[in-house]
Every structure is written in C-alpha cells, then in structure tokens.
Design goal:
Strand content: 5-15%
Number of helices: 17
CATH topology of the largest domain: TIM Barrel
CATH class of the largest domain: Alpha Beta
Shape: globular
Structural class: alpha/beta
Strand order of the largest sheet: 1-2-3-4-5-6-7-9
Order of helices and strands: HHHHEHHEHHEHHEHHEHEHEEHEHEH
Helix content: 40-55%
CATH architecture of the largest domain: Alpha-Beta Barrel
CATH superfamily of the largest domain: Glycosidases
Bound molecules: ligand G3I
Number of strands: 10
Largest sheet: 8 strands, parallel, barrel
Length: 393
C-alpha cells in the first residue's frame, strides 16, 4: 500500500486515497505493536500515539480526499478569504538570497523577522542600538509589498545586559531602560511596521504573570507601561499581546482573556492578541478554538495566529502527515469562522528553517513547505480552507 502511495510517478489524486487507507492500516499496526510491548518505555511513541491517534474528522472539510490538488499562492487565496497570510523569515537570507526572497514574496502577504527584531538583536548593549540588519529586512519586505509584523519588544529577560544588570542598586533604572527600548525601536520603525508584539509570553502557565526581570524591578504594570510607550512612539501601529498555549479553553487562556480586559479597563492602548498556535503545545478542537477566538473578539481586539507550526513526533509516517494537515486545516477553518481573526503566520518558511527540530529533536517536518520550498500536504489543506472560507469585505 505505502509503495503505491509513495510512488511519485502516479498522479497525486490517485495516490491520496491509497495513502489515507495505508495510514489507517498503519495506525492499527502501530497500536498492535504497542500492545505487544515492543515499544513500551519509549515516551516518543506514547506521545505520538496520544497526539496522533486517528479521530473522526470534526467537519467535512477535514477529509483530505476533498482538498484541491492544484497550487495557488497562499496569499492569493488568503486575500480572497479576507485575511493576511504570513511567515517568520530568516532576515539575512531574505535580504541576500533571491530564491528565498522570491518564495516569500510570492506566497505571503505578511512577514516577521524570526529573530532579527528581538531585544538582543536590536539593543545588545545599554547604549547601543543596531538597526542595519532589521532595516534591510523591513525595507526589502516593504518594497515587495509585504506587511511587516514587529516581533518582539519585551520578552522575558530581553538581552543579557538586562538579565544581568544590578537593578536593585538603581531604582527606576530598568523601567527607564525598558521605556527607552520601546520608544526608540517603535519610533525607528514608525510607519514601516504594521503591528508590534509589544509584550510576549508574560502569562505564567500556572498562575498570574511569569516572574521575570520586568515584574521584579518594574512590577506587573510593566505591560501597561510598554504598551503606552509603544503607542506614543507610533500611534498608527497596531499593538499586540502575544502568547502560547492560549488557543483553547485552558486556565492559561482564561488568564489571557482576563489580562486583556484588565488592560482595556485601565485604558491601555491594546489593539490585538497574538495566539502563537505552536500546535505541539496545544491541540484544541475546532470548536474550542472558535470559542476562544470568539471570547477575544468579544473584547473588540483583532486576533493574529502568530507562530503556527506542528512538529510530527518521530518516526514520521504518512498517517501522521495526514493528521498534521488536518490540524492545519482546522486552524484555518477556525480563523475564518471569526471575523476578528485577520492573519495566520507560520513560524518558519519551511522544514529546514524551523526552530522545532533544533529545540525538539524528536519532532520533524513542522511546516507546510519542505526544505526545497515545495508545498506539502498541509499546504493543500490550508489552501482548501482559505478558498472555502471566502469572506465578504
Ligand atoms: O542556527 C544556529 C546555529 O548555527 C548555531 O550553531 C547555534 C548556536 O547556539 O545557534 C543556532 O541558532 C539558534 C536558532 O534558534 C536556531 O533556529 C539560536 O541559538 C537560538 O537562540 C534561536 O532560538 C530562537 C528562539 O526564539 C529564541 O530567541 C528561534 O530561532 C526562534 O524560532 C524562537 O522563536 C520563539 C518566538 O520568538 C516566541 N515564541 C516562541 C518561539 C519558539 O521558541
């Protein structure tokens, strides 16, 4: 079965049905092997069995055999659906590698620097800012008509000098440094960056806010202060709070909703929420996703799915690849079901440029394009979702 399914000489529409059947067989075989104890004790298999068991599709759209097998730039389909489709890019490659840049500009309408606009990259020493690489990236993107998301102003410890500073001895100095960073960076890119992740990952997985250098020396209102400074520096930029594992209805997602409504009640200029949607951290059902998007939309904020990816637990099989594509499709359907969801951004252009295999050795193939920038099954799932979810302006 797999031999026919993997045979590139047979048209993909014929192969898809065989692949799906083979995937079902494969899941049954894996379960049998598991019962025999062949893989007992290997947590990788447990995780993959747990997260990639076949489930009934949640909607008719989750049946791969119905997805289109033609190719169309994602940004064309996204424009029809009324949303932006974006990607996190390696800044220097985007500026220097024409093939890579052409791929990005032809598929996507929005781009974010994966690392080049972070605190450490732009502000490596207390009195030194480095804008050359980020400027080249932003200018190249804008020249190609792409919107630029700014990622990220304030995150955990920012830079080494922030984490290691003797702030106890200098009351008010860290707050001044934070405000200086936000004001300088946002002011520098004023009019060139559509939206900023002003604060990233501040909510604790267990309670309240994470304890970090900002909460310790400025207090919990470092968030409000950062947003106010950003708004002053560029009143037209949309300001986002960005976090992970907040896509479903877990307690952390409740804390996100509370944080946003508290900031709003205090009159803080916050315009959007970024749900990272690293799906190996969080795999809510389609309805749960929609429920969370609806809760945020009810607060009047815009929503971006900002760091979408899904690593497949090794060993990678075609069955898991199909399951992965269904998860991607579910995310697109959920976004398009809620008008406040206006952008989907993948965290990495392709499988060879993803943080996942680097940080999680047991996960692979997380993105819709392969290392040669060729579309994979999630691409077809996403494309079908975008075409089906057409939205009137
Ligand atoms: O590729 C180099 C390698 O050549 C070098 O030998 C090695 C030495 O440390 O570094 C490698 O680069 C690493 C890079 O990831 C590889 O992708 C960097 O050290 C490492 O710091 C970098 O991590 C980045 C991480 O944020 C920390 O800033 C990831 O690229 C980036 O994808 C990740 O992105 C974050 C978002 O900003 C916020 N949300 C979570 C997301 C994933 O962690």
């Amino acid at each position: 079965m797999w031999r026919r399914c993997d045979n590139n000489l047979i048209p993909i529409d014929k192969r898809l049905r065989w692949c799906i059947n083979a995937a079902h067989d494969e899941t049954a075989q894996m379960f049998f092997k598991y019962l025999l104890g062949r893989f007992v004790g290997t947590w990788i298999l447990l995780v993959s069995m747990w997260s990639f068991n076949w489930t009934t599709p949640e909607a008719p759209s989750e049946q791969p055999e119905t997805w289109p097998l033609r190719e169309l730039p994602l940004k064309v389909a996204a424009a029809r659906a009324g949303i932006d489709i974006g990607v996190a890019a390696r800044a220097s490659e985007f500026v220097n590698d024409a093939t890579y840049a052409t791929f990005i500009t032809s598929q996507f309408s929005m781009v974010v620097a994966e690392n080049a606009m972070k605190f450490q990259a732009l502000h490596p020493h207390p009195v030194t800012y480095r804008f050359d690489r980020a400027d080249a990236f932003v200018d190249r993107a804008r020249a190609a008509g792409l919107k630029v998301r700014g990622h990220t102003l304030i995150w955990y410890g920012g830079a080494k000098w922030v984490r290691e500073g003797e702030w106890d001895d200098q009351p008010g100095a860290l707050e001044q440094a934070m405000l200086d960073h936000v004001t300088t960076v946002v002011g520098h890119f004023r009019g060139r960056v559509c939206c900023w992740d002003v604060v990233n990952e501040a909510i604790s997985g267990y309670w309240g806010l994470r304890r970090n250098v900002w909460t310790k020396h400025i207090g919990q209102d470092f968030i409000a202060k950062a947003f106010r400074a950003a708004h002053e520096a560029d009143p037209d930029a949309k300001l986002f709070y960005n976090d992970f594992r907040v896509e479903g209805l877990r307690p952390k997602a409740d804390r996100l909703v509370n944080l946003i409504s508290t900031l709003q009640a205090e009159g803080v200029p916050i315009h959007g929420v970024g749900l990272q949607a690293h799906m190996h951290f969080s795999l809510p059902s389609r309805d749960e996703l929609i429920a969370q998007l609806d809760r945020l939309a009810a607060l009047g904020v815009e929503i971006h799915l900002t760091e979408v990816d899904l690593g497949i637990p090794k060993p990678v099989t075609n069955g898991k690849r199909i399951k992965q594509a269904i998860r991607y499709r579910r995310l697109v359907d959920a976004c398009l079901a809620v008008p406040a969801c206006t952008a989907i951004v993948f965290w990495g252009t392709d499988d060879s440029r993803s943080w996942i295999p680097y940080f999680y050795k047991n996960f692979a193939e997380p993105l819709p394009f392969d290392a040669d920038l060729r579309p994979k099954l999630p691409y077809y799932a996403i494309l079908d979702g975008l075409l089906a979810g057409r939205r009137l302006p």
